[in-house]
Amino acid sequence: MAHDVFISYASEDKITADAVCARLESHRIRCWIAPRDVLPSMDFGQALVEAIRQSRLVVLVFSARSNDSPHVKREVERAVSNGIPILPFRIEDVTPSSSLEFFIAGSHWLDALTPPLERHLERLAETVELLLARAGTPPVVSREPEPPIRGPAAPSPVLVALGAAGRVLLRQGLVALRMSGRLLRYTAATVVRRPLPSALAAAGICAVILVALVVVAMQGGGGNSSDNGQGGAVALVSTTTPVATNTPKPAATPSVARTTPTVARKTPTVAATTPLATQGASAGGAAPPMGEADQFAIVASPDCVAPGGRVEATWTAPEYEFMADIIALFPAAARNDEYDKYEWDHVNTVGGRRIFPAPSTPGEYEFRLVRSGVHLAASNPITVQGDCPTRAMSAPLEGYNATTSPGCVAPGGRLEVTWTAPEYEFMADIIALFPAAARNDEYEKYEWDHVNTVGGRRIFPAPSTPGEYEFRLVRDNTHLAVSQPITVQGDCPARAISAPLEGYSATASPECVAPGGRLEVTWTAVESFDVVALLPAAARNDEYDKNNNQYSNVSTTGGGLIFPAPLTPGEYEFRLLNDGTHVAVSQPITVSNDCGP
Which CATH code of 3.10.580.10, 3.30.390.10, 3.40.50.10140, 1.20.1560.10 fits the domain covering 5-134? Predict the structure, then answer.
């Protein structure tokens, strides 16, 4: 048996499911979780069925999303049919649907409804260990039993000094290794760029410096603990974090284009606090790039926003506590532990960008990054005021880009979005059409799709309600990578056809046809595509199979096909689709009784 526990979850709860997996595996309980453990080229459904059959326990991450997920229901049914016990781990206060309740009504539940999640994860791991032990054979690799707790013994001063010196030696040794690593990377680059003699010289310099660093580290470790036998040791074992003496400069605000208010805004009554800094952090300078921070920082854009508008919060942090640190938009005088009264979200990465709706009441507010739900790490003030803009679009992350066509569309019309990205996370990154002030994690309420390639072009129907919207590419279901504004209003066009990708073309004959008439489409391509389809103008690409008479699978770089025209008059188009999702070329068609057969 390759694993003990199968983790069942909805894709929207992937962050929590990964946390469950990490905690169980830290207790040396072997887990199977998709898509991580699905072997390449293996059928996904077959992999799930076999993994469930080989498990000793199924942990169900239960939420509103998993309650409605047909995939989760099938996984639970497979577990029950194989006689495998199910442990529901409830992260939301949701009543099970009748189909799920039939299978898990008699199961023992674990609730994880109150933060922090860490406490509940530990309890889950202990419960799983107990259930596996009761089932017969204990987990394949279990933790060593902990020794009995004894009363504290007074440490020897000599041992204290030696321990402190060892820690310093280890710390400085790690610094030496990091510096040597950089030198080795430089040497490797030299071999590529320069002749061999230069590379050998660089390698020799690297070796000499490495030896010198090790010597310095050894001398530093001894010197720090030799003042008077104990004085150095006492200083070294102190756990108090030093406080930065210099006030950091304000974090650099992302470049944002926004309209300057015509009425002078009132002077804010709050100011950003000095961010917390980790040991050795620089006390000045702009906010570092995401994921490379040595202190906590948070930036809001815009810093003055209209009530109910859209505000971005971008943060960086040297570390985080999973499901315990939060980012929230507070009234200026609110307590940190009152975050659950306002707009907030967990901080589960060392950097990111989230969208929040601005409060409907004008006043002074501030974004705060709060550690363990209590301690302030960084803050940034914002003003909510009627004469401020409703939103300001920040620059995209490096390597990300998105364009939309048209920028203004009629309600219910056709929207096209094209994106590029340097990377993607399978079944976790999404592209969606949001109301301007909607949160990133609300994408499932709107038109959205997974991003499973580094670029593509999708079609979405425009909302039926006029207003301000935007396309967003959201990483890991939470972090904004790039956004593009869209206006929906009655005097805008219903659609705009973008130019085809280079090397692709399509023609339809006739362009106007009577209902039920004959349509002919021909195409050329630089590589074979999967689908050519006739769709309503505002239909999504993945809806091509709703009418079996109006699409065809193809595997050639050119050809021609005959289709019957739809029976319902309206605007349609032929699309050449790669993988049934990405538009390479499209050709508009009108179906009308005024046209010929």
Answer: 3.40.50.10140
**How much is the pLDDT for 365?**
94
**Tens digits of residue pLDDT in 338-369:** 877 888 888 877 888 888 889 999 999 999 98
Q: Which residue has the higher pLDDT, 486 or 556?
A: 486
98 residue type, one letter = S
pLDDT > 90? residue 62: yes
**3.40.30.10, 2.60.40.2840, 3.30.710.10, 1.10.540.10: which CATH number matches 297-384?**
2.60.40.2840
Who's near 267: CB < 8 A, 6+ residues apart?
none
> Which amino acid, 326?
I
Q: Which two tokens stand for residue 393?
A: 């679009």
List the Cα angle 506/508/512 in 5-degree steps: 145
* 524 closest CA partner among 597, 441, 584, 436: 584
What does DSSP assign to residue 293?
Answer: -
Cα–Cα distance measured from residue 339 to residue 328, given in angstroms and rounded to the nearest whole number: 6
Asked whether the whole model's pTM tops 0.70, one would answer no
User: Which residue blocks in 111-247 are alpha helix, DSSP H?
Assistant: 117-134, 157-193, 196-223, 231-236
